[in-house]
Design a protein that fits this description.
Strand content: 35-45%
Shape: globular
Helix content: 10-25%
Structural class: mainly beta
Order of helices and strands: HEHEEEEEEHEEEHEEEEEEEEEE
Largest sheet: 9 strands, mixed
Low-confidence stretches: 1-49, 137-145
Radius of gyration: 20 Å
Number of domains: 1
Number of helices: 4
């Protein structure tokens, strides 16, 4: 049992927890090394055929993640750039709990700012993720040396002060029991263009707010440290700036 006269243990554990849950991302490498794809939609046997996100809207040859928006009833592609997620150990809150002998440690993974720079209008956007051969061959490796399977998911982010919370972690009994909590948007995910791209589409219209596409580890002890974030509708205004 944790005694109230050892708050330093709580601080150390919270820091270790945040370090353990964030894994290094492979997306940055994919951003710089992804190769142009050969389209197959218009003609499967043509080297010059382009992959189309919508009729008359071809997917670009470069860029990892793109989102299809509707602007003035016209489909338009916008690139979603990579953002870095930062761990927050919530040290002060965890120390207070320790003083009251509460064996729960909280941490969270956050994106700075209350709104993504990229804004779209569509409430049913189609998101296209380029798949690379390197990504297929190279699995993310956990600190214990075991491979960690990962899948792309669409997440709804939640505002907390001046940050957007991507997910939270709760640990009990010095980390013997821990779990990750995220708000996953139900979406259909399909391979298109002979498996060269993934297409992610919400199954239901999603409301205005902040979202991100993340390559999420299936093992809930870990988390990806990068995200492709975007917002739907007008950006929220920080009350501190009013």
């Amino acid at each position: 049992m944790l005694h109230s006269n050892h708050p330093s243990k709580c601080l150390l554990y919270a820091a270790l927890l945040c370090t353990a849950v964030a894994t290094n991302a492979a997306q940055e490498k994919n951003e710089s090394q992804a190769q142009p794809s050969v389209g197959v939609m218009a003609a499967a046997d043509s080297d010059t055929a382009q992959i189309e996100a919508a009729p008359g809207v071809p997917l670009p040859a470069k860029g990892m993640v793109w989102i299809l928006d509707q602007t003035e009833n016209k489909p338009q592609l916008a690139r979603i750039f990579l953002s870095h997620i930062h761990p927050n150990g919530h040290r002060a809150e965890n120390v207070v709990r320790a003083q009251f002998l509460v064996l729960r440690m909280d941490s969270s993974m956050e994106l700075p700012g209350i709104a993504a720079k990229l804004r779209v209008n569509s409430h049913t956007p189609a998101i296209f993720v380029r798949k690379s051969q390197e990504e297929e061959e190279e699995m993310q490796s956990a600190p214990n040396g075991k491979n960690v399977q990962e899948h792309y998911v669409l997440l709804r982010l939640h505002l907390a002060g001046d940050v957007r919370v991507v997910c939270t972690f709760t640990a009990w009994e010095f980390g013997l029991k821990q779990n990750r909590h995220e708000d996953i948007v139900e979406a259909s995910i399909e391979e298109v263009a002979a498996g060269e791209w993934l297409k992610i589409t919400p199954k239901q219209p999603i409301p205005d707010g902040e979202y991100a596409v993340v390559h999420m580890p299936d093992d809930k002890r870990y988390f990806e440290s990068n995200a492709y974030d975007f917002g739907i509708g007008a950006a929220a205004i920080n009350p501190a700036n009013k």
